[in-house]
Amino acid sequence: MAVVKITVSEIKPGMFIVNPGISWMKAPLLYMQEGLITSHEEINYIIKQGFSEAYHDPDRFRRMEAFAEDPDADDTIWATPRAPLVSLDEELEQARLVYADSFDHVKSLMQAAQGGALDMAASQPYVESIVNSLNRNVDALISLSKLKSSDEYTYTHSVNVTIFAVAYAHYLGLSEDKLHLVGMAGLFHDFGKAFIPQEILNAPRTLTPKEQEIMQSHVLLGYNKLKKVEDMQSEILQGVVQHHEKHNGTGYPFRLAGKKIGIYGRILSVSDNYDALSAKRVYKTPMPANVALAVMYKNRGQAWAPGYVERFIKMMGIYPVGTPVQLCTGERGVVCRSNPSFPAQPCIVVAFDPVGRPVTPNVLDLYKQPDLEIERSLAGNEAADMDITLLLSQSCH
Ligand SMILES: [Fe+2]
Description:
The protein is α+β, with helices and mostly antiparallel strands. It has 3 domains: 60 residues, no CATH class; 229 residues, Hypothetical protein af1432 (Orthogonal Bundle), CATH 1.10.3210.10; 71 residues, no CATH class. The strands form 2 sheets. Strands 1, 2, 3, 4 and 5 form a 5-stranded mixed β-sheet that branches. The protein has a 5-stranded antiparallel β-sheet with strand order 9-8-7-6-10, with helices on one face. Strand 6 and strand 7 form a beta hairpin. The longest helix has 24 residues. The N and C termini lie far apart (66 Å). The site of fe (ii) ion has 6 residues, from loops.
């Protein structure tokens, strides 16, 4: 069937807009941004920009289940803690490779973003390897997520968000095939940042209002590029376009609220915020994991629907595996096993005595030692003398 000309008021979610190749000079009010229309908010946005007509392709019409109001989004999804299939020690080596390969892949795909068509299929194996590693032992990739340096933040952030989002989606009970969609949304959630000038992207200061506007445009820049991809799944698009929306309607780009934000958008938003807060940046020391989770907890019900942050915290533990900590005795070490029933009493592999001398690493189970407790988690520079991955692998022997 040929493409059909319609007025903008006739555009409906699920329509695929096409560019008929008419010169802008001849039709300045024709909307020509090719791709899938996924929400009423997007249509309002097109109308507000002053466009009056568009062409759509009826053959490419798609039902938009993932963008309809999500009636189940607020219902309780039962959290499902998983038993590891292999030990942390066994998985760490493999997870290190998975992380490094995914990082290189994201870097090259974002650096090539300005070029030709996007090959989504090329990213599938990386997402699959992340899903598989998390299935074998969820703590391995999570503990590696905070170790990478800060100078290539956009790439580490994309990998980290993929890791947290897939782990969280599994915890929320999403099926295996949906984990892959969540992972793809994670890998591509900030794809639009490839089109933001470096001086704004990496500015070591507060952005001006104009710069903030440019920065925020990364959502639609990425989304518009992705929705042109043939057979793009709407779940991936939802995660990408909704990752900065907030439950109370103050997010962007469409100020969606409540159930208008679907489960993929919610999972991505929680994961994105956690990584952004706890990340190392050139201009800020990383916020310890427990502090980042506390900040998010304060915003529960505002930024996220009730229960979403709470369940994320339950999954991560107050002190996620890999967190460097100081005990009340002054000894320092790393959290090597969480205790979901008593999250303040995980297992610690101790590496330094109270006066800072290295000791042979030994594991303490705080649940079994009631006089011992974690005094605080350590900032990055206070843990600079610890080889966290080595300590984690030694903790299993
Ligand atoms: Fe973003």
